[in-house]
Amino acid sequence: MADKKPLVQKTEQAQRLDPQKSTSGDISAFLSAAEQIRPSTDGKGRVVLALDATMSRQPTWDLAVEIQGKMFEAVSTATPLQMQLVYFRGFGECRASDWARDGKTLANRMSRISCQAGRTQISKVLGHARKAHRETPLSAVIYIGDAMEENPDSLGHRAGELGMLGVPVFVFQEGQDRAAEMTFREIARLTRGGWFRFDSKSPGILKDLLSSIAVYATGGLRALTARDSKSDRILIEHLKGNKQ
């Protein structure tokens, strides 16, 4: 590449995080407290878009590059959306970009990333989101992946922390991995977010739901209700704790 600077800077959080054990009692306590919290937005629309960039994700990486731009198009210029790309791949590589305010900028960054073989690093993603939120509040975290190769209790612990902070995590799962599904659903439950399955052959579903999340991130439930598309109604049901 002509640009000699790294695309994104490796975060200290990603380098230093170690998995934390948690008991079922810990998770229950987090969930009990999180039930008293409702996700809220401050009108700034800050969303972390986290992607599994391991080799199994190569077939749908281009799809993700294309669809993220739709999120920016879905929101009003009066309430601009800011997105940060976080991805992991290879041997322990986990990186976070600067904040982008338009789809073209984010797409350019994503187009320069290639998938590499490696294990999942979802714990680092959740830990980074917690740190980022404490610096400047986040509206939501979106995670797109197909596998989970970590300690479920550790991920539950980190998800519970985000739930306590009122940061919903929306997980989009590709494929049918049952172990991943169980953990992804738990992450969504603990953070009062949502779990969705998507098929690369049906990109419209992913596009519409991501657009709805963008609207929610910038305008809250009121904006979703006002727009009232099918995907908006689905997201509202998830946010209220109902099943799809």
List keywords for this structure.
alpha/beta, 244 residues, globular
Structure write-up:
By secondary structure, the protein is an alpha/beta fold. It is built from nine helices and seven strands; from the N terminus they run βααβαββααβαβαβαα. It has helices at residues 12-16, 24-34, 58-73, 103-111, 122-135, 152-165, 178-191, 203-227, 230-239; strands spanning 9-10, 46-52, 82-89, 93-100, 140-145, 169-174, 194-198. It has a seven-stranded mixed β-sheet, sandwiched between helices. Helix 2 packs parallel to helix 6, helix 3 (58-73) runs parallel beside helix 8 (203-227) and helix 6 packs parallel to helix 7. Residues 1-23 and 33-43 have low confidence and may be disordered.
Short account of what is shown:
With 244 residues, the protein is α/β, with parallel strands linked by helices.
| Helix and strand element order | EHHEHEEHHEHEHEHH
Shape: globular
Number of strands: 7
Task: Tell me the helix content.
Answer: 40-55%
| Average residue-wise pLDDT | 79
Beta-strand content? 15-25%
Low-confidence parts, pLDDT < 50 over ≥5 residues?
1-23, 33-43
Number of helices: 9
Sequence of strands across the biggest β-sheet = 1-4-3-2-5-6-7
Q: In angstroms, what is the radius of gyration?
A: 17 Å
Q: Which secondary-structure class do the elements indicate?
A: alpha/beta
